Amino acid sequence: MTLRTRLAAVAGGIALTLALAACGDGGETTPEEPAAGTAAEETTGSATEAEDVHNDADTMFAQMMIVHHEGAIEMADLAVEKADSEEVRSLAERISAAQGPEIEKMTSWLEAWGEETSPMGGMEGMDHGDMDMEGMSQEEAMADLESLSGAEFDQRFLELMIAHHRGAVDMAQEELDGGENPQALELAQKIIDDQQAEITEMEELLQGL
Predict the structure, then answer these.
(1) What are residue 136's DSSP bridge partners?
(2) What is the rounded distance in angstroms from the CA atom of residue 61 to the CA atom of residue 70?
(3) 73 near 100, Cβ under 8 Å?
(4) Which UniProt keywords apply (predicted)?
(5) Positions in the chain short of pLDDT 50
(6) Rounded to an integer, what is the distance from CA 38 to the centroid of its chain?
(7) Cα-based angle 184, 195, 204 (whole degrees, multiple of 5)
(8) Nearest CA to 141 among 64, 76, 206?
(9) Per residue in 123-165, pLDDT tens?
(10) Residue from 122, 129, 110, 116 nearest 168 by CA
């Protein structure tokens, strides 16, 4: 083999080595692609953690509002049966339909937070959200309503439900002032908006009786 042939062979080997090295460098860029997926997972995880963030105000809001909503539904269901006015009956149906899903939502939060779903670990010792309606407890208000009929029932139901709604608005405002969970704060504002609108509606119905 001549010197020229040997040099050509060496040069060819060097070129092949460089080509293979270049291919190896280009192939190393592909494993970097899953990094985007990892970042997305981290973002999702952060969002989930944010939803789990809560303080004592959030816990108390959910626990108390669940019981408060249960009282409203109890009154509303009675009005669906006994109301003399179609407008009052329709309002009662809407109240019951709206607050049921909110109870389920708040219950799911408390379970996810590892908290009791009712204050003090149970319903005993608690008066439906610790709320008075014109000085009446939930049980007293229900007894009062059950003793009435016709237009008298409608008037008393509206009066008591207005007082009940005002209590919910106060509780929701306390959550806005002291809570930190984004979902709980959002629901608190929704409760304020919805129930203030219903208070206005009920006051107008009272004027028409």
Answers:
(1) 133
(2) 14
(3) yes
(4) Signal
(5) 2-11, 14-21, 23, 26-31, 34, 40, 43-47, 121-130
(6) 28
(7) 175
(8) 76
(9) 444 444 445 688 899 999 999 999 999 999 999 999 999 999 9
(10) 129
Confidence at residue 182, expressed as pLDDT on a 0 to 100 scale: 97
Contact 111, 92 (CB under 8 A): no
The torsion angle over the Cα atoms of residues 194, 195, 201 and 207, rounded to 10 degrees, is -170
- The residue written with tokens 């014109």 in the block is 134
Look up tokens 């509303």; give the residue. Answer: 76
- State whether CATH 1.20.1260.10 applies to domain 55-208: yes
CA 52 to chain CA centroid, nearest Å: 12
Phi-psi region of 179 (alpha: psi -120 to 50; beta: other; left: phi over 0): beta
Backbone angles phi, psi at 147, to 5 degrees: -85, -5
pLDDT (0 to 100) of residue 20 = 45
